[in-house]
Structure to design on (667 residues):
């Protein structure tokens, strides 16, 4: 069995003491920032991105991945106990999870959330291991025109599935593509948009941009809002294990949530948040007693929690196999690879099997660690919720500053990040989602390169994109998505879906 | 905040129209696109076969200009006073200024004054951004954070950041 052999290679890498430690570290940091409202996995990964430069690439990726799926576990704790989403992906967990807690069943809700997440994490890990090799083969058969069209489709799909105005999101992508072009043009040697600043001739570093837009922008946005009151459920959590009835009702919901999350996670723009929302809607609609939803239905916790974890993990598939980021976190992962000079794409699996399979194996190990971190140690995480945001933001601010400085040991990067922080805040206020911009930023240079290659193949004839069947198919899919969103009937349906 | 209060923030209809999110977003995109086109005016464009430095950037700028115009028109055609920005958005300047300033000062001081002093400056200026942070709390936070970052970045990761000022 090739799969077993590959997994054996992976566990060999993931089970080394150093990598176990980094998986644990990532899981711990992920849980921490998942529990704390006001800081999310994107900002955290951005801040830690410069540090991964000092690590082995595999260890760095294992840690960053741990932060991402760890945050999905931690986010549910806050949602259940405080009725505040620690992460956007646990918004729906608040609805029924917090009601369960108020009925004195906080322990059961937490256990269901953790076990559902663990189950989903195991399934998603297996899915990645199964589907990555064939997808990689597809990716390897692609030429420059196909790759260009695939990136177009990826970007468009990411926008359609995200919430908010589609036109604004496409504009944000174009803005990101432009930012990605800042610096020296590798083909002609000419500099672009550098304003004569020497530090910009190497281009904008992804860590600088992400720390500014997500880290600092988030701080400013949080500080402009009045401090939220955190009504912690004061009762001691006595009974952790769910009842037999809970298991009986949660089990099918977990299966449905895992399936839905796994599918939605692979799609560009999908991932944890969309999966959780969709799973809640599905559970509510398919339930025999929908009136219980909103009053502490265990399915309302089990479904979304399994879906967000499955979605978080399967969103690694397009990034690992094709080098196409489906969401902002994956864009940062690609950034982590390029820091080490590793070109993301289908060649990674054959060139660096240890890294590829090691990371996948570490996800399963990390999920196991997370159940252990979350269930018995729940009291410790709850204590952290008592730290007010006014302390937290000072620490985040400082780590942003040091993080940016260490990217290239340059003061100019810190000033640039400060500028992007203001920009990030402005975008939030104008309801322009910054995530598509990061996707565009990562893909900008790659798209230009593939466009140039495609034009060289066709002697400058743009018809090559519609003459090649695969490329044509990808472009038609992208166009179809645009048309679908523009149709009034679908549009209202889409808004409805995000309203829920 | 009452709805009536928000409407009084921008009494003139022109400003009220300008304060709509989509109008501002559209203007922002158009502004960036125009700036990009102006900056790239001398970049060689080349042909589709041999693309010059300016080919793709100028293409993207025109695309952004078009998208910005669509967003702007959408904003102008929205129902009267739909979701305008309010005065609470303007009073948010305090965190914007002090968060940015703290980072700028940190960036300018870290190489000359070293890690310890630049952390003190960052915390000092950054603490003004939030309301309700007491002086004692700020000092305590600064001490904890200095020890923490020294431990992580200097001791743990061995980064070559100067710790003290260079005389």
């Amino acid at each position: 069995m090739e799969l077993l052999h590959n997994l054996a290679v992976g566990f060999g890498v993931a089970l080394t003491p150093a990598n176990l430690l980094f998986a644990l570290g990532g899981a711990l940091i992920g849980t921490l920032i998942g529990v704390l409202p006001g800081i999310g996995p994107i900002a955290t990964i951005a801040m830690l991105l410069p540090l991964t430069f000092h690590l082995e690439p595999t260890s760095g990726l294992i840690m960053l991945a741990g932060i991402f799926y760890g945050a999905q576990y931690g986010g549910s704790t806050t949602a259940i106990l405080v009725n505040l989403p620690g992460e956007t992906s646990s918004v729906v967990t608040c609805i029924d999870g917090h009601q369960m807690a108020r009925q004195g069943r906080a322990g059961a809700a937490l256990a269901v959330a953790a076990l559902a997440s663990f189950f989903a994490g195991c399934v998603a890990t297996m899915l990645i291991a199964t589907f990555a090799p064939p997808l990689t083969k597809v990716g390897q058969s692609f030429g420059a025109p196909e790759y260009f069209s695939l990136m177009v489709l990826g970007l468009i799909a990411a926008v359609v599935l995200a919430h908010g105005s589609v036109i604004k999101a496409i504009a944000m992508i174009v803005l990101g593509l432009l930012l990605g072009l800042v610096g020296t043009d590798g083909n002609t040697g000419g500099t672009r948009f550098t304003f004569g600043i020497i530090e910009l001739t190497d281009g904008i570093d992804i860590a600088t941009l992400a720390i500014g837009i997500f880290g600092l922008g988030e701080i400013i946005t949080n500080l402009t809002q009045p401090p939220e009151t955190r009504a912690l459920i004061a009762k001691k959590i006595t009974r952790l294990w769910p009842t037999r009835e809970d298991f009986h009702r949660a089990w099918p919901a977990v299966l449905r949530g895992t399936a839905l999350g796994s599918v939605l996670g692979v799609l560009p723009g999908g991932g944890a948040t969309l999966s959780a929302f969709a799973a809640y809607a599905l559970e509510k609609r398919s339930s025999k007693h929908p009136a219980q939803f909103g009053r502490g239905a265990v399915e309302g916790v089990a479904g979304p929690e399994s879906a967000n974890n499955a979605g978080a993990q399967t969103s690694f598939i397009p990034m690992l196999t094709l080098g196409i980021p489906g969401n902002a976190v994956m864009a940062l992962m690609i950034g982590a690879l390029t820091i080490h000079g590793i070109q993301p794409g289908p060649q990674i699996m054959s060139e660096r099997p240890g890294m590829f399979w090691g990371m996948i194996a570490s996800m399963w190990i990390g999920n196991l660690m997370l159940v252990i971190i979350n269930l018995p140690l729940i009291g410790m995480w709850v204590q952290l919720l008592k730290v007010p945001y006014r302390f937290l933001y000072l620490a985040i601010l400082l780590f942003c500053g040091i993080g940016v400085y260490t990217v290239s040991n340059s003061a100019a990067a810190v000033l640039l990040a400060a500028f992007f922080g203001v920009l990030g805040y402005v975008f939030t206020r104008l309801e322009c989602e910054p995530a598509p911009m990061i996707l565009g930023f990562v893909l900008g240079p790659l798209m230009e390169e593939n466009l140039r290659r495609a034009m060289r193949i066709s002697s400058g004839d743009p018809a090559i994109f519609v003459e090649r069947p695969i490329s044509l198919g990808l472009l038609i899919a992208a166009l179809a998505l645009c048309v679908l969103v523009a149709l009034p009937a679908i549009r209202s349906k889409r808004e409805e879906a995000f309203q829920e | 905040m009452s709805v009536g209060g928000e409407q009084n923030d921008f009494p003139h209809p022109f400003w009220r129209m300008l304060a709509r999110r989509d109008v501002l977003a559209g203007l922002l995109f158009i502004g960036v696109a125009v700036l990009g086109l102006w900056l790239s005016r001398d970049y060689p464009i080349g042909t589709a076969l041999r693309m010059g430095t300016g080919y793709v950037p100028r293409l993207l700028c025109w695309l952004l200009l078009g998208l910005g115009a669509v967003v702007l028109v959408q904003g102008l055609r929205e129902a009267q006073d739909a979701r305008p920005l309010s005065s609470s958005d303007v009073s948010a300047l305090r965190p914007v200024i002090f968060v940015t300033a703290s980072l700028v000062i940190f960036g300018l001081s870290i190489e000359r004054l070293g890690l310890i002093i630049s952390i003190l400056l960052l915390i000092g200026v950054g603490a003004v951004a939030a309301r309700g942070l007491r002086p004692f709390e700020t000092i305590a936070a600064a001490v904890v954070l200095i020890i923490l970052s020294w431990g992580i970045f200097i001791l743990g990761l061995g980064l070559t950041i100067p710790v003290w000022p260079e005389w």
In short: Chain A touches chain B through 67 residues (CB under 8 Å). DSSP finds 22 helices and two strands in chain A. The longest helix of chain A spans residues 91-140.
